[in-house]
Structures are given as C-alpha cells and as structure tokens.
Amino acid sequence: MNKLKKISVILALIIVVLGVVAGTMTVSAASNGAEDTAPAVTSESAPAQADNTTGFKAVAAAVAVGLAALGGAIAMGMAVSKSAEGISRQPEAEGKIRTTLMLGLVFIETAIIYALIVAILIIFVM
Predict the structure, then answer these.
(1) What domains, with CATH codes, occur in the chain?
(2) How far is CA 22 from the centre of its chain?
C-alpha cells in the first residue's frame, strides 16, 4: 500500500510539472504575440495565427483525454484489485461484488468518455 501512495504522489508531481510547462508555453506564446507593435493584418498572417491556436487546442485536448485516461486506469486497476481481494476473502459474495464492480467500472469509464467529448468540443467548437 505504501508503494501505491508513492507512485500516486510521483504521478501527481509529474502532472503538475507538465501543467506548469504547458502554462509557461501558453504564456510565452501569448507574450510573443503581444510584443509586436500593431502589425498589419494581412492574408498571410491570419492562417499562421489560426494554426497556432489549432495547435494549442490539440495540446489541450490531448492533456484532457490523457489525464482522464490516466485517472480512469488507476481507478479501474484499484477497483479490480479490491474486488479480487474481496472475492478471495468471501467467495460466497462473488455475485454481489462482481455486480458492484461492473457498475463502478461503468461510472469510471463514463467519466473518461466525458473527457473525450470535452476534448472534441475543444478542437471543433472553440
């Protein structure tokens, strides 16, 4: 159990560091655009700006789905582990444990699917 806590703390730190790096990249890109003194809007610069925002949208969508999948995978692994432990301790309660496990896994997977829908909205709507 102690190893699981250490792994989860390390993963949380990695996620925080990646978030800080992504935020720094976003602020840096925004400040680079602000340093220009009133550039003339031409038809050549407009597509470059659109491509830049499209890239940031893709990164945001990837981070959203990646974090949701990571959290869901950890939760599913823990749920399956605990249900197997519960079944081994009380084999007569296998049916109830399995039913509860399946219901819990469905809810976890639903959260991941919601993250996928949000990522699709980020890419195509925003």
Answers:
(1) 72-126 (1.20.20.10)
(2) 13
Tokens read off for 79: 């749920």
Q: Which amino acid is at 108?
A: I
pLDDT at 11: 73
Sign, CA dihedral 77-79-82-87, equals negative
The number of residues in the chain equals 126
- Its pTM stands at 0.58
63: tokens are: 């981070």
Position with higher pLDDT, 23 vs 60: 60
Listed residue (73, 72, 75, 66) closest to 18, CA to CA: 66
Which regions of the chain does DSSP assign to beta strands (E)? none
Q: What is the C-alpha R_g of the chain? A: 22
Rounded Cα distance between 90 and 100, Å, is 15
